[in-house]
Specification:
This protein has about 325 residues and is an alpha/beta fold. The protein folds into two domains: about 110 residues, no CATH class; about 180 residues. About 45% of the residues lie in helices and about 10% in strands. Strands 1, 2, 3, 4, 5, 6 and 7 form a seven-stranded mixed beta sheet that branches. It starts with 10 loop residues before the first helix and ends in a 6-residue tail after the last helix.
């Protein structure tokens, strides 16, 4: 059986299966190849018994080249097939397909780190000396959810159930730069947590550098102006007043509506980037893998791939 990618003749299909253009794929392949060599050397150093053959000897594996291995792991993230399907497509057993995924994900992460596209895990305001471009510290904050399998235990079911989505989910804070890149992916948390509660855990109000930061958020972050007065400026939409006897038909003023439109036009950038991440089916289909920290690492890697696709370098 011939391996899947080399039966594809149309570049558009090729890009759809791996999630990256040919240019971005080639850039990533260069670093991925170097990281594979480093991983192989480290594996040889941990050997308790010396090698009997030189590297590259013996029967050639199904995924014998760095290009095939990179396509394999990108195909998994983009399409998220079961290991039965993945093994059938790449002429591997389901167990071997699982083993390949576990081996190649850390290599992909190291390659993204070398390319400086992997987002940070916590927000770090940039110093004045490092602001090479305008609006470097102009950020947009939002959160994204993705479905997971219903936990077995009742206590975990309650923690992971999201009333907003009507299913069990996990959630991450996403901080993007107005220049079009994902700079921070917060730690993965249970879906019952509120967006603002996550931000309060992840961002210290007394953190140095906040006075140089301008922030754009949605109405889910009500109260942010009171807790984070150190920010240079906080843009949050006006909330429609509640209906009451004294105000039976509450409406926003024309000025408030205009300001809300300005905020929405700025915030749409983070919505586009989240949608860009969710073009990778591993963040859309109900997550099946129960390995510890696997859900956390996958969204981080996908965010790095989106930064690479958008030519954004994380400072």
């Amino acid at each position: 059986m011939q391996i899947l990618p080399f039966n594809i003749l149309i570049e558009r299909q090729f890009n759809a299966l791996r999630g990256l253009s040919q240019t971005a794929f080639d850039v990533l392949l260069l670093e991925f190849t170097k990281c594979l060599d480093v991983s192989r050397k480290l594996r040889d150093q941990r050997r308790q018994v010396p090698r009997r053959r030189k590297p590259g000897g013996g029967r050639k594996g199904t995924l014998s080249t760095p290009e095939q291995k990179l396509f394999f792991i990108l195909f998994y993230l983009k399409n998220y097939p079961t290991f039965d399907v993945l093994g059938a497509l790449f002429d591997l057993s389901p167990a071997k397909a699982d083993e390949k995924v576990q081996k190649l994900l850390p290599v992909l992460k190291r390659a993204e780190q070398r390319l400086h596209v992997l987002p940070h895990r916590h927000f770090k305001p940039l110093s004045d000396e490092s602001q090479h471009t305008e609006n470097t510290n102009n950020i947009i904050i939002d959160a994204t959810e993705r479905p997971v399998h219903r936990p077995h235990h009742a206590r975990k079911q309650k923690r992971y159930y999201s009333g907003k989505k009507g299913c069990h989910t996990v959630k991450n804070t996403v901080i993007t730069n107005v220049n079009g890149g994902i700079s921070v992916i917060g730690p993965t948390a249970p879906g019952s947590r509120h967006d603002y509660a996550l931000l309060k855990e992840e961002l210290d109000p007394k953190q140095p550098g906040l006075p140089s930061v301008e922030v754009w958020v949605d109405l889910g972050y009500q109260g942010i102006k009171d807790l984070y007065p150190a920010f240079k400026e906080i843009h949050i939409p006006h909330k429609k007043p509640r209906k009451s006897k004294s105000n039976p038909n509450p409406v926003l003023t024309p000025k408030q509506k205009k300001e809300n439109r300005v905020i929405s036009r700025a915030r749409v950038a983070v919505e586009h980037l989240i949608g860009d991440m969710k073009s990778f089916q591993i963040l859309t289909v109900k997550f099946r893998n129960r390995i510890k920290n696997m859900a956390d690492q996958t969204i981080l890697l996908v965010a790095g791939l989106c930064n690479l696709k958008n030519s954004y370098t994380v400072q």
